Amino acid sequence: MAAAAAARDERRDGGPAKHQPLAGKIAVVTGSTYGIGLAIARRLAQHGAHVVVSSRTEEHVAHAAEELHAEGLNVTGIVCHVGDADQRTKLIKETVSKLGGLDILVLNAAVNPYVGPLLNATAEVWDKVLDVNLKAPFLFVKEAAPHMKERGEGAVVFISSVTAYFPNEDIGPYCVSKTALLGLTKALSRPLAAMNIRVNNVAPGLIETGFSAGLTKDEKMMQMFRNVTAIPRAGYPEEVASLVSFLCSRDAGYITGQTMVVDGGGISRL
Question: What's phi and psi for 114, nearest 5 deg?
């Protein structure tokens, strides 16, 4: 247990302080006040970016910004409900006006308002899921792209899920919205490339967060999970965050339109 904890701490630290592939970059991460989103914000900042942390709750934004500031990281907090068009515009405009531009956009915010049989999902459920999980990310990219173009280059990363490949009927609308992000990534790759902007998608498997605690703390469920993965444990948020940081860096300069799975060698795809 101690070795596992030490390994997690090492992953969270982000490597040597001199490793700054994102130095001078300005990044926005939606849904970044806890879990995977917070880990992404932390890693981008550790790698040199000035990061805007954001979520719909002012208290959560303030707490996350304070936590990262205490670690000596360069962050700004801006409240944004991604399903609200005016708040999306405000997030991009405030980032550009306060920080001088925008280079990186990571779209992590998502909702899952329904659990139950797929055929019982209502029109209202579908509207909310698709508005927040699919339409909002596209409209964010549309709004941010001109500012990235002004900076000469940019990087967009969507956060999907392995359920995009194997939908779980109990959360069907959520899974379908995550599948749609795979197609959106492909569809945007050419028009954004014309603006020197790359777009990729990351699909995490079971990651150890508060959101997944009901699964990761259930030993019977975890044993079933270990039976279908090559690496017999849940992933860490930092392991998703490091991939996102790489995709936002010039080291990934020839990668666009791709979805990369972080699931410990599970059964998500060939």
Answer: -140, 135
